[in-house]
Description:
- The chain is an alpha+beta fold.
- It folds into three domains: 104-345, ABC transporter transmembrane region fold (Up-down Bundle); 357-395, no CATH class; 400-633, P-loop containing nucleotide triphosphate hydrolases (Rossmann fold, 3-Layer(aba) Sandwich), CATH 3.40.50.
- It contains 19 helices and 18 strands.
- The strands form five sheets. Strands 12-15-16-9-17-18 form a six-stranded mixed β-sheet, sandwiched between helices. The chain has a four-stranded antiparallel β-sheet with strand order 4-3-5-6.
- Helix 17 links the parallel strand 15 and strand 16 (587-591).
- The longest helix is centred in the middle third of the chain and has 54 residues, at 234-287.
- The radius of gyration is 36 Å and the shape is elongated.
Amino acid sequence: MSKQTKPKMKRPPLAKGTASRLLKLLFRRYKGKLIAVFVCIITQAVIGGGAIGIMMQQVIDHIDGVVDLAQLDYVYRLVGIMAAIFVVGILAATIKEQLMAIVTQSFLNDLRKDLFAKMQRLPIKFFDRKQSGEIMSVYTNDIDAIRQLVSQSIPMIITATITVLTVIVVMATYSIYLLLITLGAAVLMALIASRLGMGAAKYFRRQQESMAKLDGFVEEMIKGQKVIKVFTHEEESKQDFDKVVGDWYLNARNAHRYANTLMPIMGNMGYLLYAILAIVGSTFILMGDSYVNISLRGVTPLTVGVIASFLQQCRSFSQNIGNVSQQLNSIAMGLAGAERVFRMMDQQPETDDGYVHLVYARYDEEGNLVESDTRTGIWAWRHPHKAEGTVTYQLLQGDIEMHDVDFGYVPEKIVLHDVSLHAHPGEKYAFVGATGAGKTTITNLLNRFYDIADGKIRYDGININKICKPDLRRSLGMVLQDTTIFSGTVKDNIRYGRLDATDEEIEAAAKLADAHDFITRLPQGYDTMLEADGANLSQGQRQLLSIARAAVADAPVMIMDEATSSIDTRTELLVQRGTDKLMKGRTVFVIAHRLSTVQNSDTIMVLDHGRVIERGSHDDLIAKHGMYYQLYTGAFELE
């Protein structure tokens, strides 16, 4: 039986319109400065491409006819004019570079801000599919590639284009025949540059993509160093790294092979063209009257000054074509980087059709719930009714209902089936089940990190699809198993729960979470700077800070996602005491592997493969001798 070969996947070409989109974005924001840059480029190009050559021809031909030193006054004037022109060219180049530095850095600054702002609006599922290192690569490698494109390549191309056009016009005023030789060489150089440039562009694009994967892999390995060492996977990690870095190496090598081949070819072709024009021009002069020189000015004599000027123009011509070819790799990398940046910016943002908002509230003299301009400790849902043209206020209580909810992370695979519950204000609901049973998925749906496929979820009687997502999430406090500590002080990390919290409220929240004692023993107390991800704290201390952060938010609904599963028993008692204080008077959803933490729950739901198989209090479920009984007595263990 013949072995079937797997068809080779073709990499999609560079997205159309990337260059034009980048230029439009650049010009729209910095139109005035770019116009000034363009004027400087024209000035620089005309001086370098035409004026200097013309002045050189005038000086040489005039000197060639001088028989008396008194006749050199005109030459001196020409030299003075050339010096003035050089000064103007230097000023134009300096102003251009200064303006481009301002434009480039401002553009990159705005681009990063836009990118970060867009990232904040992306749904959680986007980050589920991407490594953090791959996303970081967009901010670093791809933005840097755009920097080179904007600051160097684009100005260079514009300068070279204007210079070449100027040179062609000047050449045409001297000799059509010599110009045709130059243009023939230019066509050949363009064909070579196009051929090699296309190959370089393909591999530079692959290099950017493989660099993103490399960054993601390295970041993952850095975070997982303890696991790697514990399981002695150093050699396997090195082998995996060799594969990832090998892919980047092959793409980078191929890209630079094309790019590095192009420059020597262009340079040597420029020298060859220079020599050919010198030989042909000298031959034409030696031919004397037997050669008729034709230019845009008609039949004109071919002089030593004309040949010298023409050679200078040729040098400028070939040098600018070489400069453009040298920028092909930066252009390819910049456009590949811009494509990845635009691809991220074009991601579908998290949709939010909610129109019910969470507001401060108070009771008026008649006992009616009304909106307040200041914080009162009372929250209400502001619910506009468009049909009636009225607005009602519903007290925020923390009443959560789920009716026959189905959900799948992908439409073809449903992971929750017909889940229903009703958590009344102040009740404690616990979810129990093996890993993958759907416990965390339920809490993700309450936050609307994902939207349900079927069924309904109501919050205080309001469909959560009608509630504005930021307001919905503001009403939910979370303490997760994997705590996130940000770089900053202890105070800053607690204040993350509510940015307008006072120092007194922060301290009160820390005391409620039983974190105040260990915080006061830190070197600078609440002002102690924490290292990346709280590395200078124990896991229990990080968890207590997480509880304090949730406490300062003072949300009526609390979600505890296995908050004590990764700490020791002694610390668990401390954390449990803090969470018990935090949960008092709130609607609480608890996910826990340790069943001792959920015995006092009002309702315990046992899930298996996304279905609720048992429901009731601890005593009720023990009496049923079902799955919960087996879990509790150890007859069956959670995985």
